[in-house]
Design brief:
Helix content is 8%, strand content 44%. With 224 residues, it is mostly beta strands. The protein folds into 2 domains: 85 residues, Immunoglobulin-like, CATH 2.60.40; 100 residues, Immunoglobulins (Immunoglobulin-like, Sandwich), CATH 2.60.40. Strands 5, 6, 8, 9 and 10 form a 5-stranded antiparallel beta sheet that branches. Strands 13, 14, 16, 17 and 18 form a 5-stranded antiparallel beta sheet that branches.
């Protein structure tokens, strides 16, 4: 009898070593509640734009969520919604959502994709015109009209636009004005109008929230 027991024990040990026998997990074993993935943070990271935190993918659906937006890894006071309105103070910093999921007594979290905040991008177009100052005057007044478009219509009015003439790669200012309702009108007397064939462009000097930009150069011919 003793020999049979010893042989059985030896067989079991051999089977376990060979992997023929395994310990079956209980059928009702709980799967840990964790986040297994997420999509990128949505939105345009410029002042006045909104960023939206992704809700992520979990081992089981969360019952509720908590959000905390981070600036360079530090919590932003009061920024506890899924959407975040980007501030001027965020320029040059990284923003990311810290998302907490709740399932009963279980809590799990993940930090979403960080986005670096930049200034609002702008683009200028140039329209060169010539107009008669008075009907009795034969000479024309040269006018450069610049139209500005930005990613967001916010913070552009009041910025300065300067017209330049470009010669041999060097820019010489011709006149400046301010942006009003997305347009800037640079008016110059005829004596300061470009001579012959001159390349002209306009540049926005930038602001606290809008980046610097210039229009493509346009060739202007002075006519008498």
């Amino acid at each position: 009898m003793v020999r049979v027991v010893v042989r059985c024990a030896a067989w079991v040990a051999l089977a376990l070593t060979a992997g023929l026998l395994t310990h079956a997990a209980p059928a009702d074993a709980a799967v840990p509640f964790v986040a297994v993935g997420h999509s990128p943070t949505q939105g345009t990271p410029v002042p006045g734009g909104y960023l939206t935190a992704d809700l992520g993918t979990w081992t089981s659906p969360p019952e509720s969520y908590d959000f905390q937006w981070l600036r360079d890894g530090a919590p932003i006071p009061g920024a506890t919604s899924q959407d975040y309105l980007v501030q001027v103070a965020d320029i040059g910093h990284q923003l990311a959502p810290d998302v907490h999921g709740h399932a009963g007594a279980d809590v799990a979290e993940f930090v979403g994709t960080a986005m670096t905040v930049r200034k609002i991008g702008s683009a200028l177009t140039l329209d060169v015109r010539r107009v008669h100052p008075r009907p009795d005057k034969a000479r024309l007044v040269w006018m450069a009209i610049s139209f500005m478009s930005t990613e967001r219509p916010w913070g552009t009015d009041g910025g300065s636009v300067t017209a330049f003439k470009k010669r041999r790669g060097v820019l010489k200012p011709l006149g400046s004005t301010v942006v009003t309702r997305g347009a800037a009108f640079v008016r110059l007397p005829w004596k300061r109008a470009p001579h012959r064939r001159t390349k002209v462009l306009v540049c926005f000097q930038g602001s606290d929230v809008v980046d610097v930009s210039c229009s493509p150069a346009d060739v202007v011919r002075r006519q008498r």
